[in-house]
Structure prediction request, 276 residues.
Amino acid sequence: MLDIAAFLAAPFVTCLLLVAILGYLGLHVLLRGVIFVDLALAQIAALGTLVAFLLHHEPGSPTALAFSLVATLVGAAIFSFSRTGRGRVPQEAIIGITYVLASALAIILADQAPEGAEHIKEVLAGAILWVTWETVLRDLVVVAAVGAFHYGFRRRFTRISEDAEHADRVSWSLRWWDFLFYASFGLVVTVAVDVAGILMVFAYLVAPAIIALSVSTRWGARLLIAWGAGLAASALGLAASYGWDLPSGPAIVCMLGVFLVLFWLWRAVRPRPVEA
Prediction:
């Protein structure tokens, strides 16, 4: 048991860090109604890593991360300036086509790379079971920095997510604040995709936030619910991955799916309050 605990310690701490920051950011994503922005930014980050790979830089190296971050910042700029406000084209359309284009380009580039298919698989599924403590420390620094930034400007980010029209009325620069949000979001996604893969990042952002927003209207309670659901699914997914020799990232994603199904079943069968 001690050997198992020692082997899973670094992956679990990584999951804890990702749940902490992605669970919070996922609440903002759902409130803003840009559900697929995380998937799009994750794909853009993966595209940057793939470009670095074609230029003979190993995934996870500082150069590869720099390529990924630059690509993500470009995506952040696109999404922040695509806020259409009263326009006819919804922002989700811009996000969706950006994701499709990034995915198509990634497939084209992977076709030119040696072991391209294997690299695409790793980008999707991740390899969190083999994360090192050095990587954990790097992720801790990024999560702490982004968390401190969002805590410092929490009232402004929260108001924009919950009521962008009010922020517009009081003359806040929505595009500038959107860029800061997406840029910090992109920084997290860059390091998260590197260790966890696109599927796991998307699941961490969306699944816990769905449960939290369905249960509470208070931010403190929402965070605790999202963090609790994410950590429980991570622990069970990692245990299943180790015990049954399953891919760790997909196992955690499936466990989050199980949590969502159980939550919806509970919502369906729970007693309804009797109206007077």
Remarks:
- The mean pLDDT is 83.
